[in-house]
Amino acid sequence: MSDELLKGHREAIDRIDAEILKLLNQRAEHARTIGEIKGGGVVYRPEREAQVLARIKSLNTGPLSDEAAAKLFREVMSACLALERPLTIAYLGPEGTFSQAAAIKHFGHAASTQACGSIDEAFRAVESGSADYVVAPVENSTEGAVGRTLDLMVSSPLNICGEVVLRIHHHLLRKGDGVAGILRVYSHAQSLAQCHEWLNKNLPAGVERISVASNAEAARLASKEPNSAAIAGDAAAERFGLTRLAQNIEDEPNNTTRFLVLGGQQTGPSGKDRTSLVVSAPNRPGALASLVEPLSSNGVSMSKFESRPSRTGLWEYVFFIDVEGHVSEPGVARALDALGNVAAFVKVLGSYPQAVI
Ligand SMILES: O=C(O)C(=O)C[C@]1(C(=O)O)C=C[C@@H](O)C=C1
Description:
Elements: H1 2-38, H2 46-59, H3 66-84, E1 88-92, H4 98-107, E2 112-116, H5 119-127, E3 133-140, E4 144-145, H6 147-155, E5 159-167, E6 171-174, E7 184-187, H7 189-194, H8 196-202, E8 208-211, H9 215-224, E9 228-232, H10 234-239, E10 243-246, E11 256-263, E12 273-280, H11 287-297, E13 302-309, E14 317-324, H12 330-342, E15 345-353
Parallel strand pairs: 1-2, 1-3, 7-8, 7-9
Antiparallel strand pairs: 3-4, 3-11, 5-11, 6-9, 6-10, 12-14, 12-15, 13-14
The protein binds prephenic acid (PRE).
Prephenic acid binds next to helix 1, helix 2 and helix 3.
């Protein structure tokens, strides 16, 4: 009886799958034609992708969650875009880092990812044309800003064209089972800091904590050394065949990293955008307040204000400001004009869609 019921549902799934496949290929044909119309120009259109994903979420009636539906369409668009032209995304390697996970979350699995030895090298890969876009971490909810990415954006000709928000889960990983015999734990310094309390409570005091260039490098070392463990995420655990001795060991349960996508293009408005700027203030009293005033007086909301030592003079600072809206919106455009009159230096790093998934 239940076999009969199962058979009926499976036949329905087979019919639906055939229909979905036919429709997916019709969609892919349209994307291929769009690629021809673009005629060798920029194929990746972040503003359109954000609109497609936001629309899917708003159309969704379940039982699939909005998130699950958007992720499926993320992969559909990734495959369609690859028919126009396959993309290469540079990231801070080696394979298995959270930066790679962010690149795949944003571009889907049809894009190729190119591991680079440093964030500088990943920027250079795009500037020299050996990769199309770079995905670089810019801030973590517990550890704050990633200074190197901020510094590189000041001088790089690349524009920000997207953002990726990734929940970070750390695990204690080892080749084999049990914590007995662990003498050292490798991880990136930020991850060691993010799991500090857990390590204090759960590992003997004598276990050495060694910071290395990336979590994936930590996992690689732990896969080679029997008395070593690593703190890293799922991708690194899978890449190096390690056992998860303890899962989600980050002290802060909402641990999230924000990444930026940068490339050579300017991005059009999607309807729900963010604009990132770097500005410097003249060194005089009230200068800082004068940077904020043009935003509030033009009704522009600020979502980030971060200071960073300028590399040109001692005790001089530059300020990284994120505002809601696109440079083409009148309020943002007026605020930027006014900012230009009071700031010593203003650079628009990019206007781009806010993360949808
Ligand atoms: O609309 C476009 O410009 C397309 O190329 C189609 C499409 C899609 O599959 O929906 C694919 C890639 C772009 O980044 C945006 C959207």
